[in-house]
Amino acid sequence: xxxxxxxxxREEERCLNQTRKALDTIRFSPRPExxxxxxxxxxxxxxxxx
Length: 50
Prior knowledge:
By secondary structure, this protein is mostly helical.
């Protein structure tokens, strides 16, 4: 687009900054059951087959 409204650009910039701030607050923490399942799978994969 040419001739964009400068006010719209400022609003977009504010929205983008708000989104970035919100995303920076997100933390991922897997459930203990998920971590246990991963550990169990890793043990099976490392154990040599007889």
